[in-house]
């Protein structure tokens, strides 16, 4: 897929399959854009975590609510947007998973992992859903696609 | 790839060989059920061999933490063996590497319980 200045979006159900599906799409698109193996893994994992939040915490598996996933190549960046149709999230209630008192908690690491793996993470909650924007800068000589690396 | 587990006994220690992905859904459930089943049968010295685990997400990390604390709360010990680079990196950035007892050879892991 040539994604120069191109946007592609998907409307997905609020299901576990959507999470795997979103991860697979991220892996494929990041690979096609020429990101290295480690970056592809980071992007796909960030998208997976974003999809988990949208399906579980945003839409709460509601069959009438959708997850909108979009990938856009804008010059030197891959911009990924994940939007749910839930009631929004309270960012002030997200605990720091690295705090000693939270280390042994069994959840609450998704946003931290996204922030670790992506260059920019923006979260915009509202009463009609949460929009998550993940940005990864294109680095290196292969930026722009495998065909450029020959 | 879905997750698969197989367990074996070595000198009173249960080695759980895991392969595939530990992620939200089936992978996490399989790990949870396996550890709970071992504990219910009195197997409280557990080593999770993660050599063939090629992917783990935040839910999978949470499941490892849950397995660790559940085992500890029942008077047992759970250790991790043979982390792949990806899993190792994840445990490093989440600061869990210092929480888990991580081993890189099976014999050493078994001996460490004695």
Tell me what you see in this structure.
The complex is a heterodimer of chains A (150) and B (114). Chain A has a five-stranded antiparallel β-sheet, covered by helices on one side. Chain A has helices spanning 16-32, 37-58, 110-117, and strands at 7-13, 66-74, 77-83, 120-126, 129-137. Chain A has three helices and five strands. Chain A has a single domain (7-145), classed as Heat Shock Protein 90 (2-Layer Sandwich). In chain A, helix 1 (16-32) packs antiparallel against helix 2 (37-58) and helix 2 packs antiparallel against helix 3 (110-117). Chain B has one domain (4-111): STAS domain (Transcription Regulator spoIIAA). Chain B has a five-stranded mixed β-sheet, with helices on both faces. In chain B, helix 1 runs parallel beside helix 2. The chains are: A alpha+beta (150), B alpha/beta (114). The interface between A and B is medium-sized, with 20 and 20 residues.
Features:
heterodimer, A: 150 residues, alpha+beta, Heat Shock Protein 90, five-stranded antiparallel beta sheet, 3 helices, 31% helix, 26% strand, disordered C terminus, B: 114 residues, alpha/beta, Transcription Regulator spoIIAA, 4 helices, 5 strands, 32% strand
Query: Any idea what the CATH superfamily of chain B is called?
Result: STAS domain
User: So, the CATH homologous superfamily of chain A?
Assistant: Histidine kinase-like ATPase, C-terminal domain
Tally of distinct domains of chain B: 1
Q: How far do the termini of chain A sit from each other?
A: 17 Å
Assign the CATH topology of chain B: Transcription Regulator spoIIAA
The secondary structure category of chain B is: alpha/beta
What is the tally of helical segments of chain A?
3
What's the CATH C level of chain B?
Alpha Beta
Oligomeric state of the chains in view: heterodimer
Q: Please state the CA-atom Rg of chain A, rounded to the nearest Å.
A: 16 Å
- Fraction of helical residues of chain A: 25-40%
Text of the CATH class of chain A: Alpha Beta
